[in-house]
Design a protein that fits this description.
Helices cover 20% and strands 23% of the residues. The protein is α/β, with parallel strands linked by helices. Helix 7 packs antiparallel against helix 10. It contains ten helices and 17 strands. The radius of gyration is 26 Å and the shape is globular. The strands form four sheets. It has a seven-stranded mixed sheet. Strands 1-2-5-4 form a four-stranded antiparallel sheet. Strands 3, 6, 7 and 8 form a four-stranded antiparallel sheet that branches. The longest helix has 15 residues. It starts with 10 loop residues before the first strand and ends in a 12-residue tail after the last helix. The chain has three domains: 94 residues, Immunoglobulin-like, CATH 2.60.40; 204 residues, Rossmann fold (3-Layer(aba) Sandwich), CATH 3.40.50; 56 residues, no CATH class. The structure holds zinc ion. The site of zinc ion has 8 residues, from loops.
Length: 396
C-alpha cells in the first residue's frame, strides 16, 4: 500500500444501522470504519466505556478504500442513552487516540412520548370504555352492525345471543363459553407497555386502540379496549380473535402481544385484526419464536418473522421487524435451560448444572446416553423439543 495523500482524512465511517432514531430503548448497531492508524475499538456512545462493538470483516470497504490500511465492520447492540439530539455517538479508538464521532439519524417513526395517564380499574371507567366502543360493535358471527348494543344483547340479523353488562360485553355463545378453561390470573400478559406502545396510546388519545389478547392488566387506558377470552377485571370485550365483534375500520392501532401463538387460526386472527383497523392504522405485534411450550390455556404456533408477516395478509405494510429487549435471545436460551432443568429427574440435575457450553457443541446424537438426555421426562421433552411427531390415521 502506498502512502496516502497528505489531505486524506484520519478516518472514515458509515452507519448501516440504525437508519432512523430507533423506536426502542435497545437496538442493533452496524457499520464500518476505515482508519490510517491501527484501529483498536469502536464503542457506541460518546465515551469509551462498557463493552466495545464487535469487529467484522468488510472486504468490500477495504477494496473501495485502498488508501486506508485499517478497515473493519462493527456490529452490536446499543441503548437509547447513546443517542443525543437525534445523533448516534460513536467513539473510535486508534493508535493516535480517541475519536468521538456522531451519526445523524432521521426522526423516529413513532416519536417517544411520556406514558399517557392510566387509571385504576373502577366500574365507572369500565362503563365509560364500553360507551366509547359501543358505536363500533358488530356481530362476531355475521358482522351485522349492532346499533342497539349494549342495550340489546342479540344480533338483529342472525339472532346470535350475547351476555352484556355495563362493564363487560361478552360475545361468546354459551357453547363457546363452556370451552374456555379456567386458568389462573397470571395468564400470559407481558405487563406494562413499552415505549412504542406508550407513544401510540398518546398519539391516539382521542381515538381507539384494541389490545387483542390483553391478558390481565392492573391499570386501564381510557382509549385502549382490552379484548380477552378470560373475564379478567380489566377485560372490556370477551371474544375470539378469529371473529372480532367490531365494525370494519374501527381502530387506530391494534396491539397483539404474545397472543397469536395461542389462537387456533392465526391467519383468521390476523385477517380480523387488519379488518378492524382503519386504513393507515398501526399493528404492533409480538410473537415468540424460540420460546418453550406454555399453555395459558393452549399454545399452538411459534413464528418466524416471515410467518409473522404472513398472518396479516397482503394489506400489511411492514414498518419494522426487530428483536425487542423482552425477546432478546437470552430469553430463548434461558427458557430452554430452565425447562430442561425442570424437566429432568432430580438425580440428573447436578450433571446438567455442571455442563459447560463447550460440552454441548458435539453432534446431538452423541449425547443420547447421557443422563441429562435420558432422564428428561416425556413432558419436559415435548416442552422444548426441536421437533414433535404425530402419527394418526384418517377416520374410517
Ligand atoms: Zn349476527
Amino acid at each position: 500500500m502506498s502512502t496516502p495523500p497528505a489531505d486524506t482524512p484520519e478516518l472514515l465511517f458509515h452507519l448501516d444501522l440504525p437508519t432512523a432514531v430507533p423506536a426502542y430503548a435497545y437496538f442493533a448497531v452496524k457499520g464500518w470504519v476505515a482508519t490510517l492508524a491501527p484501529l483498536h475499538a469502536v464503542f457506541a456512545g460518546p465515551t469509551a466505556t462498557g463493552q466495545p462493538l464487535a469487529f467484522t470483516p468488510r472486504p468490500d470497504v477495504s477494496a473501495a478504500l485502498p488508501a486506508y490500511a485499517h478497515v473493519s465492520g462493527f456490529v452490536g447492540q446499543a441503548t437509547a442513552s447513546e443517542i443525543v439530539d437525534g445523533q448516534l455517538h460513536l467513539t473510535i479508538i486508534t493508535d493516535r487516540g480517541e475519536h468521538p464521532v456522531t451519526c445523524p439519524l432521521t426522526p423516529p417513526p413513532f416519536p417517544p412520548a411520556a406514558p399517557q395517564t392510566d387509571f385504576p380499574i373502577t366500574p365507572a371507567l369500565r362503563a365509560e370504555k364500553i360507551r366509547r366502543i359501543a358505536p363500533h360493535l358488530a356481530c362476531p358471527a355475521c358482522k351485522a352492525v349492532l346499533p342497539d348494543a349494549p342495550a340489546r344483547d342479540t344480533c338483529p340479523a342472525c339472532g346470535a345471543a350475547f351476555q352484556f353488562s355495563p362493564t363487560l360485553l361478552d360475545f361468546f355463545s354459551s357453547a363457546q363459553r363452556a370451552t374456555i378453561p379456567a386458568v389462573g390470573a397470571t395468564g400470559d400478559s407481558l405487563g406494562g407497555y413499552d415505549e412504542v406502545m406508550n407513544a401510540l396510546v398518546q398519539r391516539f388519545a382521542d381515538g381507539l386502540i384494541l389490545d387483542c389478547g390483553a391478558g390481565l392488566k392492573g391499570r386501564l387506558h381510557p382509549n385502549v379496549i382490552n379484548l380477552e377470552i378470560m373475564d379478567y377485571p380489566s377485560t372490556d370485550i370477551r371474544a375470539f380473535n378469529e371473529s372480532l365483534p367490531f365494525a370494519t375500520g374501527t381502530f387506530d392501532a391494534v396491539f397483539t402481544l404474545a397472543t397469536l401463538e395461542h389462537v387456533r387460526d392465526p391467519f383468521a386472527a390476523g385477517a380480523e385484526i387488519m379488518r378492524v383497523l382503519k386504513p393507515g392504522g398501526i399493528v404492533y405485534s409480538m410473537v415468540p419464536l424460540l420460546v418453550p411450550y406454555h399453555g395459558y390455556p393452549n399454545h399452538y404456533y411459534n413464528m418466524t418473522v416471515e410467518g409473522h408477516r404472513l398472518v396479516f395478509g397482503p394489506s400489511f405494510e411492514p414498518l419494522d421487524a426487530s428483536v425487542p429487549l423482552s425477546g432478546n435471545p437470552m430469553w430463548a436460551l434461558s427458557g430452554l435451560l430452565h425447562a430442561w432443568h425442570n424437566g429432568l429427574a432430580p438425580s440428573a440435575r447436578p450433571e446438567f448444572l455442571n455442563l459447560r457450553i463447550g460440552d454441548l457443541l458435539a453432534p446431538p446424537l452423541t449425547y443420547t446416553d447421557r443422563n441429562f438426555v435420558r432422564h428428561l421426562t416425556p413432558e419436559g421433552a415435548l416442552e422444548i423439543a426441536a421437533m414433535t411427531r404425530f402419527i394418526g390415521r384418517k377416520r374410517a
